[in-house]
Amino acid sequence: MEEVLKTSLYEKHVSLNAKMEPFAGYLMPIQYEGIIKEHTAVRTKSGMFDVSHMGEIYVKGTDAVKFVEYITTNELKSKPSGKVVYGLMLYENGTVVDDLLTYKYSDEAFLLVVNASNVGKDYHWIVEQSEGFDVLISNHSDDYSEVAVQGPATEDIVKRILNIDLSSLGAFEFTNAVIEDHDILISRTGYTGEDGFEIYGDHIAINLVWDRLYESGEVLPCGLGARDTLRFEAALPLYGHEISDKITPIEAGFGMFVKFDKGNFIGRDALLKQKADGLSQKVVGIELTEKAIPRQGYPVFSGETQIGVITTGYLSITAEKPIAMALIDAKYSALDTPITVQIRTKHVPGFVRNKQFIKKNYKK
Amino acid sequence: MSKVLEGFLYAESHEWAKKEGKIAVIGITDFAQAQLGNVVFVDLPEVGANVKKGKEFGAVESVKAASDLICPVSGKVVEVNEDLVGEPELINKDAFASWLIKVEYTNESDFNSLMNAEAYKEIAK
Question: Which of A89, A120, A124, B121 is most buried, judged by most C-beta within 10 A?
């Protein structure tokens, strides 16, 4: 049996009576008092998540920008330092190794933040691709803790409680700050559809951040349960669900993060061919017209024919209706196409819809 | 610590049954609701449906997951708790007051295999 790891904030979750479950090799808090309360705190005020299980990989060297552009889909050369860029790492066949945030320090230094469940795979993949590039790749995942603080009141709370004024930090920008002599990195990013920050630092620094925010009583600790309901409502993909080694970013609807003009990158040819040939499968939004809950893995039908499967679905806490994302046969992907979802023994009717499930609240 | 009440009978799958004359009132236990977290939906059979001991008769769903309901007795559904359709969270507030269905049971002996409160306390912890 593999050893289950604990983040540096583990004892705090236990003392708050969190429901702990293994996720990506770590024992993580799924919920504290309840997913609905936590979800609502992030939509209306502020909530914080221990996301120390995420992976942090540095790429440095004279070829760094060339190399990171080669292994990811997005464009980085034109971006100023201090910018965060969302992108995807692809296999040659165009399917997804992982999605990631790329923090640009300079053309010669990047921090890649990758999914917890993929850290080992990603690190090996990146190292393998680096032959012939003048880069140094190092996995610092164990050195960092990370807390995500999300919600409309977060900027104000961080200013008052942590004494850090982030009013001039734009969306997808990062900066350095200090907490009791510990350096921290703060980006205006998140995974909830709300304004907020992701804060990285050594374990002591992040424990300080957590404690101060918790003791203020203004930021509610939130578990992975609410993290998933929030990211789902914002139609943000989760690796293994909406993107995977069986799904390309084009099929998933993330073509805007793929920059064909920048030059060659791994998976480019396969995606160009896919665009030319047309898609055979697509990730779409689905809404049910009867009250029922479409959950991951449930089959989607058109008449008698199974056309796909739910990738994530909930009775949306914010929208208060049954909605889902599903990977289906592209022939049925037009908006308003009637479908059914098999839920236990019933076929529950619904239709294909857009993925704007809620209004996102990002800082302009 | 979950509540386990005297006067109710319990199934290993965390449903309770209470005998009221020819009727079995059926719900889920306080332990079950605590494990589930926020209940957001109940999927219950229609009045008149036949249910079987040990077989699924619906589901109770939290934000995260659907949990099958297993019937502790066989019989015919005579009443469904309609209050739970609009307010499924009542189950979180009081799982013993928030019954799911009432069943006109076929075999009185179906109750024999259920646990009393004392035995269920050993499971619900």
Answer: A89
- Is B56 close to A292, i.e. CB distance below 8 A? no
Which CATH class for the A10-50+144-233 domain?
alpha beta
As given in the structure block, the two tokens for residue A24 are 């990506």
Instruction: Point out the residue among A30, A35, A293 whose CB comes nearest to the CB of B61.
Output: A293
Decide yes or no: CATH 3.30.70.1400 for domain A55-140. Answer: yes
Task: Judge: B63–A295 Cβ closer than 8 Å, yes or no.
Answer: no
- pLDDT, tens digit, 9 for 90 and up, residues A197-215: 999 999 999 999 999 999 9
Q: A293 and B56 in contact by Cβ < 8 A?
A: no
Beta carbons of A115 and A24 less than 8 angstroms apart = yes
Q: Which amino acid is at B121?
A: K
Instruction: Tell me the C-alpha distance between A215 and A160, whole Å.
Output: 13
Tokens of A247: 């799904």
Residue A282 near residue A325 (C-beta atoms within 8 A): no
Among B56, B63, B85, the residue with its CB nearest the CB of A225 is: B63
ipTM greater than 0.85 = yes
Amino acid at A30: I
Beta bridge partners of A350: A288, A339
Closest CB to B38 among A36, A292, A293: A36
Q: Report the residue of chain B nearest A314, measured CA to CA.
A: B63
Q: Quote the CATH superfamily of domain A280-353.
A: Aminomethyltransferase beta-barrel domains (2.40.30.110)
- What residues does each domain of chain B span? 9-106
Cα separation of A94 and A87, whole Å?
Answer: 13
Report the topology of domain B9-106: OB fold (Dihydrolipoamide Acetyltransferase, E2P) (2.40.50)
Residues forming CATH 2.40.30.110 domain(s) in chain A: 280-353
**Cβ-based neighbours of B88, under 8 Å, separated by 6 or more:** B39, B40, B41, B42, B60, B61
pLDDT, tens only, A137-174? 999 999 999 999 999 999 999 999 999 999 999 999 99
DSSP-derived pairing of the beta strands A47-50 and A220-222: parallel
What pTM was estimated for this model as a whole?
0.95
Amino acid occupying residue A92: E
